[in-house]
Amino acid sequence: VEKRECAYCLAINTTICAGFCMTRDSNGKKLLLKSALSQNVCTYKEMLYQTALIPGCPHHTIP
């Protein structure tokens, strides 16, 4: 997260989509290889929003 008005650039690490779940869609795609039907998807058991304050930002700045 970076803003010109702030004194710092802040890296925020998330665990979104950690451990992708493999899924396969074979509906009507008989000519494709099985590997072409597989894809990684995200499913969520819970979600959490948190606010991060960037040090050195003026109070009027919205990072």
UniProtKB/TrEMBL annotation:
SUPFAM superfamilies: Cystine-knot cytokines. GO terms for cellular component: cytoplasm; extracellular space. The keyword Disulfide bond applies. One of its GO terms (biological process) is G protein-coupled receptor signaling pathway. Its main location: secreted. CDD domains: GHB_like. Residues 1-61 form the Glycoprotein hormone subunit beta domain. Keywords: Disulfide bond, Glycoprotein, Hormone, Secreted. InterPro entries: Cystine-knot_cytokine, Glyco_hormone_CN, Gonadotropin_bsu, Gonadotropin_bsu_CS. The keyword Glycoprotein applies. One of its GO terms (molecular function) is hormone activity. PROSITE patterns: GLYCO_HORMONE_BETA_1. It comes from the Eukaryota. It is found in: Secreted. Heterodimer of a common alpha chain and a unique beta chain which confers biological specificity to thyrotropin, lutropin, follitropin and gonadotropin. Belongs to the glycoprotein hormones subunit beta family. This is Thyrotropin subunit beta. It comes from Anser anser. The gene is TSHB.
